[in-house]
């Protein structure tokens, strides 16, 4: 599909009045794009000691600085932290995993791969360690339903690695998920994996494993999106093209739909939400109806505060949190009424981006990194604690 035709398609989808069980879809159907306000937690306050602006009742702390030992562990935190997720740990507590978007053949903390922070039941860091190395440009990824982490390599020969958050089992590469410039991954309730591709003409992929909890073999497909918002899936002829062969995204030509810079993915209540950085959009794919709409578009939203949309996460109650690559260095919440409001703003770090947003299992702590923060521009990983779970969140 040519770019001009795709823009017409996106405009039509943004104006669509499709209705489903999603509260976002109901807001779209009722012209419910709420105007900006201070958000469900009130206005951002002045910057704290870490240079972070937060609503009243929230606080931040620095967990790790790249290339420096994580306090209390002696383990040097990896550079350029990117996508992340949390996992409940045996015996209480939880683990936050974080990709390292670095080049492979470098020493120590400069290596690409995946690192982890282990927390006790009180939320204190008690360990830090490596899960994966020997890879290249590990960008985002996604958690599996069985408690492992998919780390995605963002280069044209990129693959997907499945990692054990405890570090007890070695990482396994899954070629069946395709060879391309991988960004993020998200699972639906049926165990299918959705994959984004960070290219100007990247595709939206779906992978159906032959057996649940086993990603070693299955069927990889690409999405075709029509002007009514219907999605048709087409089998990828060669998920692992040899060097010089037709790249994965181009194997079906105009039969599949390009998405401009595929970034974050998250599944919530039967919907897969995709962000595309090239046009600053947030998309909503309904798994059951196989229909797709644009939830957020800066050209149509009354308060277009999101720019450089990137990683995305969600609370079980449905609200979406979108990280900015650049922009105002904010984490922005999209409420169920499609109001957009900043929840976190990081000051004094030009040229960086917010990466890896993920809530702890209680939903009271939010983890993220500023990828190129600090004196050497190597990254800082933070925690923000506060009443994310409070009653009435996201309602008018």
Write out key terms for the chains shown.
396 residues; mainly beta; five-stranded antiparallel beta sheet; 2 helices; 40% strand; globular; disordered N terminus; disordered C terminus
Strand and helix layout:
Elements: H1 3-14, H2 23-29, E1 52-53, E2 59-65, E3 81-88, E4 94-100, E5 113-119, E6 125-132, E7 138-143, E8 149-153, E9 160-163, E10 172-173, E11 182-187, E12 193-197, E13 205-211, E14 214-225, E15 231-235, E16 262-268, E17 271-276, E18 281-286, E19 291-296, E20 309-314, E21 320-324, E22 330-334, E23 340-346, E24 354-359, E25 365-370, E26 380-385
Antiparallel strand pairs: 1-23, 2-26, 3-4, 4-5, 5-6, 7-8, 8-9, 9-10, 11-12, 12-13, 13-14, 14-15, 16-17, 17-18, 18-19, 20-21, 21-22, 22-23, 24-25, 25-26
- Roughly what percent helix? under 10%
**Arrangement of strands in the largest sheet:** 1-23-22-21-20
Helices and strands, in order, run as HHEEEEEEEEEEEEEEEEEEEEEEEEEE
Q: What is the number of helical segments per DSSP (H or I, 4+ residues)?
A: 2
- Specify the biggest β-sheet: 5 strands, antiparallel
Q: What fraction of the residues are assigned to beta strands by DSSP? A: 35-45%
Distance between the termini: 39 Å
User: What is the number of E strands?
Assistant: 26
Q: Based on helices, strands and strand pairing, what is the structural class?
A: mainly beta
The best one-word shape is globular
Mean pLDDT: 91
């Amino acid at each position: 599909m040519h770019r001009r035709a795709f823009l017409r398609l996106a405009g039509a989808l943004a104006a669509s009045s499709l209705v489903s069980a999603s509260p976002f879809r109901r807001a779209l159907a009722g012209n419910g794009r709420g105007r900006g306000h201070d958000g469900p937690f009130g206005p951002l306050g002045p910057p704290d000691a870490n240079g972070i602006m937060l609503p009243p009742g929230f606080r931040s702390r620095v967990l790790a600085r790249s290339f420096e030992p994580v306090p209390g562990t002696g383990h040097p935190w990896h550079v350029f932290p990117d996508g992340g997720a949390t996992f409940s740990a045996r015996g209480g507590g939880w683990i936050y995993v974080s990709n390292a978007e670095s080049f492979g053949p470098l020493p120590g903390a400069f290596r690409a791969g995946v690192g982890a922070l282990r927390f006790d039941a009180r939320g204190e860091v008690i360990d830090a360690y490596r899960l994966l190395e020997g890879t290249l440009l590990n960008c985002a990824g996604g958690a599996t339903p069985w408690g492992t982490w998919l780390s995605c390599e963002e280069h044209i020969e990129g693959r997907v690695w499945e990692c054990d958050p405890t570090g007890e089992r070695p990482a396994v590469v899954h070629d069946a998920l395709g060879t391309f410039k991988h960004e993020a991954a998200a699972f639906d309730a049926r165990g299918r994996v959705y994959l984004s591709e960070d290219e100007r003409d990247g595709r939206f992929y779906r992978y159906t494993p032959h057996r649940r909890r086993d990603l070693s073999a299955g069927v990889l497909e690409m999405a075709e999106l029509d002007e009514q918002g219907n999605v048709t899936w087409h089998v990828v002829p060669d998920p692992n093209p040899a060097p010089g062969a037709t790249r994965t995204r181009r194997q079906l030509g105009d039969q599949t739909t390009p998405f401009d810079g595929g970034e974050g993915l998250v599944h919530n209540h039967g919907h897969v939400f995709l962000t595309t950085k090239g046009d600053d959009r947030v998309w909503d794919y309904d798994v059951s109806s196989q229909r797709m709409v644009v939830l957020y578009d800066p050209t149509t939203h009354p308060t277009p505060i999101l720019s450089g949309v990137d990683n995305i996460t969600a609370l079980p109650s449905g609200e979406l949190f979108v990280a900015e690559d650049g922009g105002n260095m904010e984490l922005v919440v999209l409420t169920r009424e499609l109001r957009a409001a900043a929840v976190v703003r990081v000051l004094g770090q030009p040229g960086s981006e917010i990466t890896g947003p993920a809530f702890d299992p209680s939903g009271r702590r939010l983890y993220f990194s500023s990828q190129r923060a600090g004196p050497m521009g190597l990254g800082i990983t933070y925690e923000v604690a506060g009443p994310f779970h409070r009653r009435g969140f996201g309602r008018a």
